Amino acid sequence: MARVGISKAAVQKARDALLERGEHPSIDAVRIELGNTGSKSTIHRHLRELEEGDASLAAGLGSISKALGDLVTQLAQQLHDEAQARIDKVAQECEARCEALGERLQVAEKEAEALTKALAISQAALAAESEALATSQASLHTEQTRNAQLGQANQDLQARLEDKQAQVASLEDKHQHAREALEHFREAAQTQREQELRRHEGQLQQAQAEARQLQQALAVRQEELTRLHRDSDRLAMQCEQAQAQQASMVEQVQAAEQAKTALVQQHAQSEGARSVLVAQLAEAKAELQAEGERYRALAAQAGEAWQALETARAELKALREAAERGAEPGA
Asked: Is the pLDDT at 2 greater than 50, yes or no?
């Protein structure tokens, strides 16, 4: 179903109602009076036709009345345009400032969140490194205790080896004495000397075998002691590295704390800047309200000028009618 357009009579009625209230019958004001219906082009065409009709009726007012009407119309439109331009400019500036401040605040909040996460990760890593350091220190203490025990066992084996070596030396002396005795008493106790010699040689071989076994055990203990020394050195180096890593993590945590403090200060500064912008926005709104009051005052003055123009038109019409009535008897 086609939409019915706004008639010229409705536009004229709305314009007359505005003029009676002392308001300027602009296109927007007439459209509001009509209930925000009708296109602006149609309303503008009807207003132009009505103004042309009024102009044809008021042609006798002369160039002064027409110039006054045009001046009032132009002044009212110019004031409206200037006020609207200033209102739009102030609103755009306020919106731009608020958006910039919001973006800066979001960036600061994201940085604070990232630093908080980094701090938590660093603290967790520091706790893990501390636990690893404690484990390494416990292992080092255990290895040191074992090293001390092996060292004591090595000393015991060394003492036993020295004892066996003393026994071997004593047996060798006895063997030498036995040979000497055997030489002195060969003829008298050949059998006894041979048995004594074999017995002493068996004891000597047994003592030498025990000495070799003790030397082999001592070599094994020496190798194990060397390995334990290497393990102890390695654990000491790991402890030193863990302590260095712990110190580095502490420095990173301190740096993160400092960065977080700086970010909190920056956030406080952003909040201060936001307060300043809010105050500026309030001032801009106050200025905008003052401009609106000024515009309404100028519109009222324009309405009064239009009212004076309409009064002059009515007086002119009355004079014309009186002149026509006075001229009729003479006709």
From this structure: no
